[in-house]
Every structure is written in C-alpha cells, then in structure tokens.
Records
---
Amino acid sequence: MAWGGWGGGGGMFGGRATAPGLPFGGIPSELMEGATQILKTEPEHAPSNITFTQRPNAKERQRLTLPKLLRVYPGWVVSGSFLAILISLVMQVGPLLTAYAIDHGMGGTSRHFHSQRSLTVIFVCAVLYLGSALVSVWLQKMQVDVTGKLSSRVMHDLRIRVFTHFQRLSLDFFTDEKSGVLMSRMTSDIENLQQFIQDGISSFAIQGLTMIVITVVLFSLNVTLAAWTIFLVVPILFALSIWFHSASERGYLLVRDRIANVLADLSESLYGIRVVTSNNRQHRNIRNHRHVVGAYRDANLYTGRVNSVYGPATIMVGILAQALLLLIGGHMVLNGQLTLGYLVAFFLYLNRFFSPIQLLTQQYTALQQGRSSIIRLRELVETQPSVDEVEDALVLPTIEGRITFEHVSFGYLPGKLVLHDIDLEIAPGESVAFVGPTGAGKSTMAKLANRFYDPTEGRVLLDGIDIRSVTLRSLRSQLGVVPQEAFLFAGSIRTNLSFGRTGITDEDIEEAIDVVGLRELVERLPQGLDTEVHERGQTLAAGERQLLALARAFLARPRVLILDEATSSLDLRSETVIEHALDRLLEGRSAILIAHRLTTAQRADRIVVIDHGGIVEMGTPSELLRAGGAYASMYEAWLASGGRDATQPE
Ligand SMILES: Nc1ncnc2c1ncn2[C@@H]1O[C@H](COP(=O)(O)OP(=O)(O)O)[C@@H](O)[C@H]1O
Ligand SMILES: [Mg+2]
C-alpha cells in the first residue's frame, strides 16, 4: 500500500527500491516525473570495492611501461592503429588524382595532347579528391576520439596506481623527497604522458606511415626519379636528424632540470611565506628566484636555437630536393620518360614527405617528455617502501600492550646513529614519559614503536612479537599516535574525528569531545560538530587542533598510545583539562608520553630520561626526584622557569 500512496507511480520504482544509493523515503507525486528522468540517465554504480593491501598484487607489481598501460584497452589500441593506417593511405590519394586529371583530363601525356582533354575526367577527379579529403577528415575525427578515450582511461589508471603507491611508501620517502617534486609526478609527468598518448603516438604513427606510403608511391610511379630524389635527400636529412637528436636531448634535459628547480623554489617560498615575510626575506627570495628562472630561460633559449637551426635546415633540404626534381624530372618529361601529371604528383608528394619531418621536430619534445615521464613514474612505483611487510606477515592479535625495545640502535642516515643500544620494557597498562633535551631522540623512539622506521639493529616487540613480522594494518590499528602537528583534513569536525572508522556513533563523538574538553569550542561554532574545518585545519588554533587530535585518538581506542608533544600548544587552563583527559585516555592502555611540560611527565608511571640517543635515567617520578640526578635538575629548572609544581596539590 505504501507504494500506491503516491499516485500509482510507485510501480516504476519497484525494481529499484533496494538499489544502492536510493534509500526509500517516498517521492512526492509532483517530483515523480523528474525522478524517473534522472534515474534513466543515472548509470548503474557498481558497489565500491576499493581495498588496500600493503603488498602490491601481481598486476601492481608489473613493470610500468607504455605498452603495458595501453594493453589493458586492446579494442581502442587496435582501432586506433587501424585508423592511423587508413588515414595515411587516404591522405595520399589527392596527388594521384591530380596526376590523373592532368594526364587524362588536360592532355598532360604530351604525345596525345588533344585526344586526352576531357572536362568530365577533371570533374570526376575533383569530386573524388574532395571525397577523399572528407573521408580523411572523418577518419581523423574518429581517431582523435579513440585516442582521447584511450588516454583518459590510461591516465586514470596510472593516477590511481601512483597514488596507491604513495600510500605504501614509508615516512623516510616523504621526508627525503621535496613535496613539490612528488606533486609534479602527479601533475606534469602524468599530463605529459596523457598528451603523448593522445597526440604524440598517433601523429608519430601517421607521419611515419605517411613517409613510408609516399616512398612506396614514388617508387611505383617512377623508380629512377624516386631513387634520385630520395637517395640524395635522405642521407642529408639523416645526418641533420642525428645532430638534432643529441642537441635537443641535451636541451631537453636542461629545461627539465631547471623547471624543476623553479617549481621547487616556488613551492618552498609560497609554503613558507609567513616565515619569509616576518624575517623580511623577500628580497633574498626574489634574488634566488631570479636565479632559477634565469637558468630556466637560458635552457629554453638553447632549445629554441637548436630548433631554429633544424627547422629551416630541413626546409632547405626540401627546396634542394625540389630543384633537383625540377631538373631531373623536367628532363625526363622532355624525353618522354615521364608524364607531366606524374611530375606534378612527385612535387606534391615531395612536399608531403617533408612536412611530417617538420611536424616530427615539433613533436620530438613531446616524445622526450613522454618518455622521461614514464621513466620517472616507473622509478616512483618501483621504489620499495623502506618499511614493508614480510611476505607471510601475521595479523597481530589483540595485544595487552607490552612494548619492548631490545638492543635498539637506529640512524636516519647510514653511519650516523641517533639511538644507541636502547633497552626498555614498558608493561601493559603502564604510562612512560620520555623527557630530555631537544634532539635527544625521543620522537625517534616513538617512530620506531609505531614502525615508521625499522631499527638499524635490535628489535621492537609488542607482547613479545617482533613488529616487523606482523601486517602494518594490524599493528597500526592497535597503536594510536598523536603527533605535535595535529593534521586535520578538509571536512567537518565530525568526519575528522571519526576519520573513516566504521561503528562510531554520535554518542562516542560527544563523549570524546567532553573528555578532551572541547565542548565549549563545539558549542561556539556555528554548525557545531558539522562545522567544516579547512585543509590543515588552519582555521582553528593550534591548541584546538591538538585537542581534536586527542579526541580522534580517544575514538580509535588503541591498545597503545603514543603522544609526541601532543599537548605542547595548550595553554595552562586546557592543560589541567587535558591532564584529566589524559587520565581517561590512558586508562588501561600502555602509553609513551613525550612532553616538554614536566607537569605532564609527572603523571606518568615512569619517567625515562633520554639524552644523546641513550637512556640516562629511569624510574618513577618520585624516585627520580629523590635521586637528585638529571631529572631532578631538569625539574628544578622547570620550576624556576615558572612551571607548575606537580608534586604539590593544585
Ligand atoms: N628525518 C630525519 N633525518 C635525519 N635526521 C633526523 C631526522 N629526524 C630527526 N633527526 C635527527 O635525529 C636526532 C633525534 O631527533 P628526535 O628524535 O626528533 O629528537 P627529540 O628528542 O627532540 O624528539 C636529532 O639529532 C635530529 O636532528
Ligand atoms: Mg621530538
């Protein structure tokens, strides 16, 4: 009956009532017609089946080459090639028709000058000429269509493949590579390749085929004349092209390197604009930029010069060939060895033989760009993550939370250790604060526990299991990391908190907001939890972002929590809120707390003092204060600088 309720139109939707994306809420009868229209044009969406595995599957492990990328779409490749062949054949009909019209319509065969004049022949040839031109235009349209589709699909696949690979790579890759460079893989490299597939391949194919077709036609028209012209011209062209190849290759490499410098300089300057302005570094920045832009200009001038020699030189060779043709061909016509029509056809073909060479020159840069783009993209997707899963990685069972550093040494750069032989065991449920001077290695310890890096020597264990032997997914699902720089994604606060996790209810989110003390903020915001925060969360204060990051970690309910200066941007009042929040957050969890505020460190079960990549002191807060060692003097300095004394009641 519910279906009949709106004007009997329900039957139309009967078949789709359970279709995904259409939760049935009843469609008012006046909107029925529109809805039916929309449904007709709406494609059937396959259910999304995106999965991510750390280890690439067989398809993703394939070597990245253009043929392999294209092979996925055999239909389009075949029809595109077929069209290219047809185009290069049909385009060469014109001169033959002209020759026929001259010889048989205008009496070009000098011996039968009068018997061979016929307007009909001329007319038919002209119509056929027009027809062949129309056919070739139509074929070209089809061909552009096919290659357009092909290149869009291939680029789509490639973008996803590269992006997926980014998700697999380890932290060191992203810290070592300039982000501008990584961006350019996804922008200019992929676009170069798209351009190449769309225009480059087909014009190379068509122009190459055209030269072959013309050579064949010329030889079949008159072997002697064809031999003279082709064999005199081709060696000169060949020598010129070899020179051009190496010169333009050099120019191209220069241009490529220097534009990369321009982009890197640009992105760094824009990204750091606040620092630049506040330090009055504008003039130095401009000077730098003039430098890289100037180098780029010089490289462009060089390639310009190379092109300006090669282009006109080939034109010269073309003219030389025509002069030769006039001399030899004219002589042959006089001797009756060649008809006038054929001579004209030779001239027309010779022009057409040279114009592809001109075009190839222009396309050559596109070819080089396409080729080097695919090489760089291949290097990128073949980069092995430095932190990877072993072949038969286990799924880490739910852990109690014992964290063990066993003789751990580590260096970011080979031969330069920043952690030396660390031995540390954190019991399930225990919270341990790492304190020590900047650069001591605290964050590095945290990164090893989370397997952002693997130790150079020694092992990190969770519940006695080497974390290198388990899947990254199962490992990280039990570890919560809150870094100093809280990162928010474009979207609402709500989506930022649940962050794609399933099974998080509104009540959970409200609870998390209360726990971290963000209630006031959420109530102040115009749309509450649904307020959009901008990319990188720049619209919120740093402290607010940190609190959101803590709430996110609270919602993830990890077994082990790692806070790396996660409360450093909070003012004193939020600090007291956060200390209560921390108690809730740490309940029953093992935790590593890195805090420069010793008030926070004091709340930990145990304090580990780290300096110069080693543990110098370790014990409960009161033990360490009594012992009067490194921690005790740090604490004294902290109090002297106005820190709140956590050993006294508030
Ligand atoms: N990605 C990196 N590459 C090279 N060296 C690094 C990198 N990150 C940190 N370091 C160096 O490692 C040492 C320890 O750093 P870190 O663990 O971040 O210190 P902190 O105790 O202040 O957290 C420092 O000397 C730092 O310069
Ligand atoms: Mg640090």
---
Amino acid sequence: MPEDPIRRKLVIQYAPKLTACGVHLAKGGVRILDGVDLEVESGQFVAVIGPSGAGKSTLLSLLAGLESPDAGLVEKDGVPLVGPGAVAYMPQSDLLLPWRSVVANVSLGLEATGASKREAREKAMRALERFGLEEFARVSPWALSGGMRSRVALLRTALLGRDVLLLDEPFGALDALTRRELQEWLIGVRDELAATIVLVTHDVDEALLLADRVVVLSRRPARVALSLPVELERPRKMAVETTEEFAQLKGRLLEALGIVH
Ligand SMILES: Nc1ncnc2c1ncn2[C@@H]1O[C@H](COP(=O)(O)OP(=O)(O)OP(=O)(O)O)[C@@H](O)[C@H]1O
Ligand SMILES: [Mg+2]
C-alpha cells in the first residue's frame, strides 16, 4: 500500500490542527509539564521523543482530552479538547481484552461509539482483511505474538475513524525485527488512517522514519527542547536510514536529547 499523493492532499486539507500552548501541569506536587508548546498542522505526523519520565504520555493524555492543564491551552481546530471521544488514542499498554477474540476486540471501540454489535463486527472484519489480519480474527489476544497484538491494538484505534490519532509507543515492547516490520506497515497504511497523527516513541530512528516533524521534550519538567522538520522524501523506505541527510537529522536529535554533544 504505497502512499497516495492525492489522498495525502485531501488529508492535509481536512484533518484538524492540534495545538498545545504554554501548557503547565503538576501532579502530586511534581511539576511535569513546564510551558510546553506544540503545534501539529493539518494532516501532519509528529513524533514526540524525550527521556523516560519526561512527560510524553502525560502530554498525549492532555491531547486526548483525558487530563486538563493547570495553565495553557490544548485545542483541536481552535476548540478546547475536553473529555475523551474527540480523538483516537492508543495508550502505552495495548489494553486488549483477553476474553474477547481479535475481531471482538477490534469492534469494541465501534460498539462504544454506538454502532450495533453486528455492524461493528462486520466493519472490524473488513478492516482485519484490509490490513492482512483476517486469519487471526477468531483467536484470543493471548495467542498472538507481540507484533500481532500491536497491529490489532493499532487497528482498533484507527477504526474509530477519528481525524486525530494519538499513539503512545505503539511498538515499544517489540524486538527490533518486528518493530521494523510494523514501522513499514504503518508507513504503508498511513493514508488509510487519514488523520493528524502524534506518535510518542523512545526510538530516534523510528521518529525520523515516520514523522514530518520530531519534537524533543527536555527532562522533567518538560519543555520543548527542539522541534525539527523532517523533509526526507516520501514515500519513505527503510534505506533512507543510510543517507547522510538522515544521519544529520539524527545527530541533531541526539544532541537535543543530551546523548551526544
Ligand atoms: N500522580 C502522579 N504524581 C506524581 N508524579 C507523577 C504522577 N503521575 C505521573 N507522575 C510523574 O510524571 C512524570 C511523567 O510521566 P509520563 O508517564 O508522562 O512520562 P513518559 O515521558 O511517558 O515516560 P516513559 O518514557 O517512561 O513512558 C514521571 O516522572 C512520573 O513519575
Ligand atoms: Mg510514557
């Protein structure tokens, strides 16, 4: 499924803009976010990286409308994001229900949005087919490999049909090879997802491979240490990682993370 430039243009035209402006948040007396500014343009794919405990998941849950800032604004197309439901959000753990089959897990989100059980199942089944997962439809999540679980969880999120997709380390727990496979898969299905996307990751290569822009958060309390446009050619191939341009961008990210000086 190569990226389709015409569809991309449509996505960019209609997908919403996300804004976090001067966002402060403290929990239990601990300052976590310290004036975070983030702008995600229509249809843009932004990756957020930063040290463990920096506040990446916290920022994502604010963008999901699950938490409110102590100060500052979090908006979708200029409207404050309050309460869940306005965006599709995949939390850091995949939350697949072990007692439901794969197809039942995928249809769960749709049922929650008011679709009938039958309608939700049919739609889930079609999606599983389109994403090459149909042979696993009837099995339980515990019978899946880690990579398959991630794919199913991602599909369940994507199927909500929201125009914003927030992904918190969707491939975090996977081995390097499976991770690569799923990154390639995500590059391929990005057009199907037709959304503004924010992905949290620890993996600098993953951020550069997938995103249009990479935002680096500082250590807690988090601020934006760097916002780096990634103008690598699309559709991206894994081979882009061997280019000089990629190495230069990676150098800047590692520097902002304080890993190289
Ligand atoms: N209720 C709380 N009280 C105090 N501190 C909290 C609370 N909840 C979260 N924190 C702290 O907030 C910080 C940010 O947490 P968050 O989960 O957003 O980090 P993260 O960047 O996603 O980390 P990781 O990369 O490990 O997933 C952490 O240092 C965490 O210990
Ligand atoms: Mg996290």
